[in-house]
Amino acid sequence: MRRMAPFDFAQPSTLGEALSLLGEEGARPFGGGTALMLMMKAGVLRPARLVSLRNLGLHRIEANGELRIGAMTPLRALETSGDVKKGWPVIARALRTLSNVRIRNVATVGGALAHADPHMDLPPLLAAMGARVVVQGKMGTRTLPVEELYAGYLETTLKPGELITRVDVPALGKRRAAYLKCTTRSADDWPALGMAVALETEGDAIRTASIVIGAATDKPTRLLAAESALRGARADEATLARAGDAAADELAIVGDTRGSAGYKKQLARVYLRRAVRAALG
Question: How many domains are there within the chain?
Answer without folding.
Answer: 3
